Every structure is written in C-alpha cells, then in structure tokens.
Sequence to fold (380 residues):
Amino acid sequence: MLYVPPGRWLTGSFNLTSHLTLFLEKGAVILGSQDPSHWEVVEPLPSYGRGVDVPGRRYRSLINGYMLLDVVITGDNGTIDGQGSVWWDWYSYHSLNYSRPHLVEFVASEYVVVSNLTFLNAPAYTIHPVYCSNVHVQNVSVSAPPDSPYTVGVVPDSSDNVCIEDCIIDMGYDAIALKSGWDEYGIAYGRPTTNVHIRRVRLKSYSGSSLAFGSEMSGGISDVHVEQVHLYNSFGGIEFRTIKGRGGYIKRIIISDVEMANIFLAFAATGQCGSHPDNNYDPYALPVFDHITLRDVIGTNITIAGSFTGIQESPFTSICLFNISFSISSGSPTSWVCSNVFGFSESVFPEPCPDLQSSYPNSSSDCLSLLHLNGEVAVL
Fold:
C-alpha cells in the first residue's frame, strides 16, 4: 500500500505497480503540478495514432498504470486535484506543445478498482481505462468547471468488463463517454469497448452530453447496459456520435430507468460528428449503428426530445423506444428530428417522428429480442 496521509501533496506524473493499493486518507489532497516539465511526454495511443488535442505525442497522465494487474486507487474520500486550469488555457489559446494529460490512466491493465475518492479539475479526461479488462469505478465524485474545455469524467476506451456505479459526475464536456479508437488507427487496433454496466449515477455536463458514445468508436462499442441514472442541467442527455470514416459499430445498447431534468437535447444520434486524425482515413469506412433500446425514461423541462440523423449509406437501424415521457419546455421549435434512421416505438410522448414508428422489417421483433437479452444481461 502507498498511504497518503492528510495534507496537500504536490507531484508530477507518477507510475503505479501491480498488486498495489494507493490509499488517500480523509483530508489528503494530491495536487497535479502546473509545470509541464513535471509531466513526461509519451507516444500517442496506437488506436489513436496521434494526440487528441494536437498532432504528435502527448503528456503522460498524473497517475499511470501500464500493463498492471490488481491495482486499487481508493481512500476515505481523499481528493486528487489535477489543477487543470493552466492546461485549459493552453488548449483554448492553441499554445499546447503536446496533447493534454489525463488525471488517471490505466493502459493494458486488468482488475482495476477506483473508489471512494473525489477527483477535481482534470486537464482532459479524469479516469481513462484504455485496453483494460475488469475495471470497477465505484462511489467517486468527479467534477470540473462548466467552462473547462473538453473535460470528461470517466472514459472506458477499448476496454471490456467495466462497471461504473454510485458516482456523481459534473464536467465541462461529457460526464461519461465510451470510446474505442480513432478512424484507421482504431480499425487497425481492433479492440472494442464491450460488456459495460453503468448504474446509479448522477451525471451533469455543460457543453457535451451526460452520457456519450463516441465519436471515436472505430474499434466498436457493444453490449452496454445502463440503468437507474439521473441526468440533469445538461446540454445533452444521451448521445451517440459517429461520422463517415470511423468504421466500427455501436450496437446492443440498453438504457433504462432514466430520470432527466433541464436538458436541452434528451436523445441524440448523429452520423456527422467528429474530426479525423489525418487525411489517411478511409471515407468509405461506414460505421454501423444497430439495436439501441431506450426505455422507461421520464424527463422534465426538455427542449428537444430527440435528434436522430443517420448516414444515408449506412442508416441507423433498430432504434427501440419504450415507455418514454417528456415534458417539453414552452417555445421549443420541434420535439423530434429524424433522417436515415429506422426504429420502433411504443408509449412515447411526445410522439416521435414516423421514422421511429416504422414497419421496417423485423424492427419490433428485433426490439423485443433485445429486451429478452436485457433480462439475461441483468442477471449476469
């Protein structure tokens, strides 16, 4: 065990080791240095091919694990503060030499636990498991100011068997975002994000979405079960993002028991979101978007219920909406926007666009078969 006693402890980036518990006592605060020379510069992730913020290399995260087994970051509600304001300024003024660091990152590691802590002011992502298996994030509070640019809470990335539960996350961009690599690099690396369970979380995002999928999803995202979530005071509620050139897929996603309040755009799925790492991507690599179920959702003060804009050459299919009720704010220009999408709906208010009430072959039976699968997933 590496024990951090009460006090304020300033540090540059550092590595963990296997079979280790990093424990922060109550009143212990780890502070990330604001001097970039204290952050090592490392190669980009192979599934991204370059830094996300700027081409080339990236700063190593504050707390790192590489090819580790059995690692725990926990405590008695101690705090890890990335002091990200300098990084946000450098990003906003286009003066970064390398892409921003994350607060905690595990790469190619197994049996990772992050629990019972407060995370503040990440330079970019807060908790980033990438190429990992068996990750458990539980009872953490994660936040960054509303105006912090593209800060994200928890980001499962090309990882499997991930559980995120009992968390409160309030970020500048996305609260939780699932990813799996960027265009040709993600396709070549070929590791999906799969078998993810998210439950009992409170999510708030300022300029992005409370729960996001993509847009970097070239390795695929599948078999995700989200339940008992509260999304509030956010621009977007639940959003699926992709674009031509991504390839990959988003499929077999089940989201249920959702409460929303004060959300501009409750549901979104777009095939026109995101940039490309370089000019070597394949414009004919079309993403597949299929078997998405949204059910048992209540929303108050919603401006737009849903915007589903698929890709003409690869429409979004088997979008299944059940038992959804939104209170639309007065003056809303429209409740639903749809194009290049096929789906099925039942007991949805306000009534969705005809594309989501279609008699597209097997749409209703596909939805019901996925709901049956949901029961099996829930048991697991």
Observations:
- The first strand starts at residue 2 and ends at 4.
- The longest helix spans residues 363-379.
- Confidence is low (pLDDT under 50) at residues 375-380.
